[in-house]
Design brief:
single chain; alpha/beta; Rossmann fold; seven-stranded mixed sheet; binds S-adenosylmethionine
Length: 239
């Protein structure tokens, strides 16, 4: 018999297809549904880049390239490569990179965030924002992120959590379970994309549970930075 969580896991293997369908409205909905806070979270992520110049960066599940663009805008980043399985998302990202004048510094390609088809020990920083909960095998992804980092390289991973404060949590759950799926499905024109995306949030480990996964993958000096009352977390780990 198929349980709800196995069917969710099965669906994650194909989740990038949903993003192909919603790519055209993704950026607009992101800005509106997060009330613009997602922009601040990505900037916060940049504050945790490792020390050093000429950093080589990899952004997994890059989508329409918002994190790749933030990375390209940093003076101490020399090169950025963004990977995603959704052609629709990265085609939009490529246009954004060109329009912002970062074509000499940032490239986007089709690539899997679980197997991470990149040379061992080749990256100073690997970023991954709001992607890992959509992966069919997040723990293998973490092991591969560790593999491709250079010694002392850093993983910066952002993902939704669940706020601890009772009131914030109640508001958040109402927003996430009711309002966001309704508006998201309506505007994207996709039957249940945003209903599915929200289910993946409540099903996914956060805070210390996620850090335990990072430690199991080999990361040291792990820490979780709570963003906006724990609505999201930035996880940091070093090789
Ligand atoms: C919520 S979007 C996040 C995009 C971007 N990082 C951001 O912060 O806006 C999730 C992305 O994960 C991608 N994705 C899902 N499964 C993937 C996989 N196995 N490998 C690479 N990307 C994947 C989707 O195509 C989608 O673009």
């Amino acid at each position: 018999m198929t349980t709800p969580s196995t069917s969710l896991k099965e669906r994650k293997k194909e989740s990038f297809r949903i993003f192909d369908d919603i790519a055209g409205t993704y950026d607009l909905l992101n800005r509106c549904l997060s009330l613009g806070i997602d922009v601040l979270w990505r900037r916060r992520m940049m504050k945790e880049l490792p020390a050093g110049n000429q950093l080589i960066a990899l952004d997994l599940a890059t989508g329409t390239g918002d994190v790749a663009l933030e990375l390209a805008a940093q003076k101490n980043v020399a090169r950025v490569r963004g990977l995603d399985l959704s052609k629709g998302m990265i085609e939009l990202g490529k246009v954004k990179i060109q329009n912002k004048g970062f074509s000499d510094k940032a490239v986007l390609d089709i690539g899997d965030g679980v197997t991470v088809p990149v040379d061992d020990a080749s990256q100073d920083v690997v970023t991954l924002s709001f992607g890992i909960r959509n992966f069919p095998d997040p723990q293998t992804s973490l092991k591969n992120i560790y593999r491709v980092l250079r010694p002392n390289g850093r993983a910066l991973i952002m993902e939704f959590g669940l706020p601890k404060n009772f009131l914030v949590r109640a508001f958040y759950l109402f927003y996430f379970r009711k309002l966001l799926p309704f508006v998201g499905n309506l505007i994207s024109g996709h039957g249940d994309a945003y209903t599915y995306l929200n289910k993946t949030v409540e099903d996914f480990p956060y805070d210390q549970d996620f850090l335990n996964w990072m430690k199991e993958a080999g990361f040291k000096n792990t820490r979780a930075v709570s963003l906006s009352f724990g609505i999201a977390f930035l996880y940091i780990g070093e090789k």
